[in-house]
Amino acid sequence: QIQLVESGGDSVQAGGSLRLSCAASGIFVGAFSMGWFHQAPGKEREGVAAIGRGGGTAYKESVKGRFTVSRDNDLNTVYLIMNNLKPEDTGMYYCAADELRDYPSLKRIDFGIWGQGTHVTVSP
Known about the structure:
This protein has no helices and eleven strands. The protein has strands at residues 3-7, 11-13, 18-25, 33-39, 45-51, 57-59, 67-72, 77-82, 91-98, 113-114, 118-123. The N and C termini lie far apart (40 Å). Strands 2, 4, 5, 6, 9, 10 and 11 form a seven-stranded mixed beta sheet that branches. Strands 1-3-8-7 form a four-stranded antiparallel beta sheet, with no helix packed on it.
């Protein structure tokens, strides 16, 4: 059974940091391009960070310099380190896997395997 399980969501104040984890089972994260998506309340789910099979990364403009995506193949886990958090970063964060592309995509349609999400609240 393929599963992606996110964890690490919490409530923090603006300027704080969090590390989100995405533990995979049934797939090997090193063989997939992996992405992190953010869904703010009442808004569409958007890609914020992704790491391709070859290790290349892509970020949404608004998180560049603040968020870092990484992968630990031994632990079969993908991480999203979030620094200098802002209230607009509040929402659900989902991990997803793209089995077709080598490069890191931020397009929701490119991802076929999804986790259940973890919630982040950033207060002013």
